Amino acid sequence: MEQRKFKRFPLQCQLEVRGENRSGHSFCESTELINISGGGALFYSLQTDRYIKGQVIEANIMLPGTPEIRGRMKTTATVVSVKNIQNSQNTAACDRIQIAVHFMEPLRLMRNEAPSRANNQPARVVSR
């Protein structure tokens, strides 16, 4: 029986993922978070060729209700599992994959300044 160090909590919100695929090409994907825990997260992807076990990614969990400041929680994570999800017709093809990641560092709360005050300022860390 699998025992987890942290409890998982369902959290469906937008997730932006940055990394390099198997060929070393950079990518950025906007996808959906499934759940999160103190040590990692689980999310969906339609890009079945982008993720491999052991890969390091940057994850930005977008905070709902903060479009003017683009509030997000940012971290670096390691891919620990890539699982095919079969489509509803039970054919050999998969619709999407589930990616489980382990956080390599604590989540950092980030935001951009409001557009009227931004003056092209980069995002700032709100807490550490």
Distance between the termini: 34 Å
Helix content: under 10%
CATH architecture: Roll
CATH superfamily membership, which one? Answer: Electron Transport, Fmn-binding Protein, Chain A
Q: Could you list the spans in which at least 5 consecutive residues all have pLDDT below 50?
A: none
The helix/strand class is mainly beta
| Proportion of beta-strand residues | over 45%
Approximate shape:
globular
Number of helices: 1
Main-sheet strand order equals 2-3-4-7-6-5
In CATH terms, what is the fold-level topology?
Answer: Pnp Oxidase, Chain A
Q: How is the main sheet built?
A: 6 strands, antiparallel, barrel
Taking all residues together, what is the mean pLDDT? 86
Total strand segments: 9
The SSE string, one letter per element, is EEEEEEEEHE
The CATH class designation is Mainly Beta
Number of domains: 1
- Rounded radius of gyration (Å): 16 Å
Describe this protein's structure.
With 128 residues, the protein is mainly beta. It has a single domain (9-111), classed as Pnp Oxidase, Chain A (Roll). Helix content is 3%, strand content 52%. The protein contains 1 helix and 9 strands; from the N terminus they run E-E-E-E-E-E-E-E-H-E. The protein has one helix at 115-118; strands spanning 9-10, 14-20, 26-36, 40-45, 56-62, 72-86, 94-103, 108-111, 124-127. It has a 6-stranded antiparallel barrel. Strand 6 and strand 7 (94-103) form a beta hairpin. The model has no long low-confidence stretch (mean pLDDT 86).
